[in-house]
Write a structure and sequence with these properties.
heterodimer; A: mainly beta; seven-stranded mixed β-sheet; four-stranded antiparallel β-sheet; B: mainly beta
């Protein structure tokens, strides 16, 4: 089973700042079998990024993904108030699919 | 518009069998590339994929839970049912029904999620 480790656990930033979140896999997930989800309190996760860098329908272009192999990054270029949430990465190259433990982006 | 809604008991006793139903609309499980499944989230917020069913009558299960899970589909009713045997307090979680659209065929990617149902396991 592929273990995904996310860092930092919590990121404290102000609106307008840039957020950079990391996801590291215990083994290669190939060039792009990595997704990112956003979850707000009381809501289900929402797919943001698929195939490491593809934006899901309706996702603003301030969200971008990059990386390959074992190291991936989610970047939010300029934080909007609605972006403060928990972010999870997910791999889907190696069954069973697995998720990281989550990174929280909180208002500073 | 894609919608999914979970239904079932919110409290079960240890050793009982849990049965959850996902009723969906906006797509057909007989359409090529479509998948529906279940993901749970523990109170500590960990996410775990449980079971998935696909348009071509294939199912997949989490290996460590495979002997406790059964997923079935009824395409005429637009429903997917998950049964989980021998429930334990560690199975307390929010259970989500999820949808994989045809554009993600071959990949375990979930574009739509239900609101989730919190299931507690306690005597």
């Amino acid at each position: 089973e592929t273990v995904l480790t996310q860092s930092p656990g919590t990121l404290s930033l102000s609106p307008g700042e840039r957020a950079t979140l990391s996801c590291r896999a215990s083994q290669s997930v190939g060039s792009n079998y990595l997704a990112w989800y956003q979850q707000k309190p009381g809501q289900a996760p929402r797919l943001l990024i698929y195939d490491a860098s593809g934006r899901a329908p309706g996702i603003p272009d301030r969200f971008s993904g990059s990386g390959s192999g074992t190291d991936f990054t989610l970047t939010i270029s300029r934080l909007e108030p609605e972006d403060f949430a928990v972010y999870y990465c997910q791999q889907y190259i190696d069954p069973p699919l697995t998720f990281g433990q989550g990174s929280t982006v909180e208002i500073k | 518009q894609i919608t999914l809604k979970e239904s079932g008991p919110t409290l079960v006793k240890p050793t009982q069998t849990l049965t959850l139903t996902c009723t969906f609309s906006g797509f057909s499980l007989s359409s090529s590339g479509v998948g529906v499944g279940w993901i749970r989230q523990t109170p500590g917020k960990a996410l775990q994929g449980l079971a998935f069913t696909y348009w071509y009558d294939h199912e997949s299960y989490h290996p460590s839970l495979k002997n406790r899970l059964i997923i079935t589909k009824d395409t005429s009713k637009n429903q997917v049912v998950l049964t989980m045997a021998n429930m334990d307090p560690v199975d307390t979680a929010t259970y989500y029904c999820v949808y994989r659209p045809p554009i993600f065929s071959g990949r375990s990617l979930f574009e739509s999620w239900g609101q989730g149902i919190l299931v507690s396991v306690s005597s």
